[in-house]
Specification:
By secondary structure, this protein is mainly alpha-helical. The chain has eleven helices and no strands. It has a single domain, classed as Mitochondrial carrier fold. This is Mitochondrial carrier protein.
Amino acid sequence: MEFLLGGASSMCAVLFTNPLDVLKTRQQLEGELIAKQNLTKRSYRGIRQSILTVVRTDGLRGLQKGLPAALLFQFSMNSVRLGTYQTVDNLGWTKSANHPSLTPLLSVFWGGCAGLVSATASCPFYVVKIQLQAVTSGSYTARFQHHHSGTVSAFVNIYRQSGVRGLFRGYPASIARLVVGSAAEMASFSVCKQLFLHYQVFQESIVLTALASSTVAGFFTSVLMSPCDVVTTRMTNQAVSTNGKGLLYTNIFDCFLKIYRSEGIHGYYKGFVPMYLRVAPHTMLNLTFWEFFKGLHE
């Protein structure tokens, strides 16, 4: 039941936050490996222009591109991630009775472990989601677009081209992304929740406590996860050879290095604003729905 509650909460959240995820993906892929000073034309500069560009080229429906894949990704990822973390928490492994100072470190450790397991379960859905969100009918500055007609078509095309390995493209980067993001999110959420409950900041209100805790968790998640998120998007969307090998990046280290050399530190934080605007409310909605569903289940 813990796994189902985690998956259901994330699916509710992504219905509201997927448009920001589309904007984030487009911004991360724009001007790929081009120095900022050499990027003369940008279609996705800022939130307002990004929204207008998507609407003009793909219509209002463009803001929900890849939604079925996003729903599948969120369910597979968070059902495993939140379910694993909650199970470990129920067993008391995230707390140290003898050494209370170790509790935050245990939360980080088990949050990272939950992220590692969830990355494996959700990677194929993430690959499809990114490739669908990157496709546009308008002029676009991304190096490559995978023209899939839909979610099922994307799975079939990727499998035919590269086999199972194609569905796990960018897997090491995806692991890094979810381990860092999950550790930051779950640890900061748990610590803040305990503090708010201990000091009765919100008079033991489950909803208000979850909202405040997840707002803080969203901030730490965005800052720490952004570089890994950019790398995962780039590796997932790159063009591939006939034998399924990436034509732009050979591995996660090569991708990090090429981004730094071409775009500098700024490249690691492309799409940061829509990412934060997405991660903060998504974390807030996801963890709030999670707490709410757990309350109903109890």
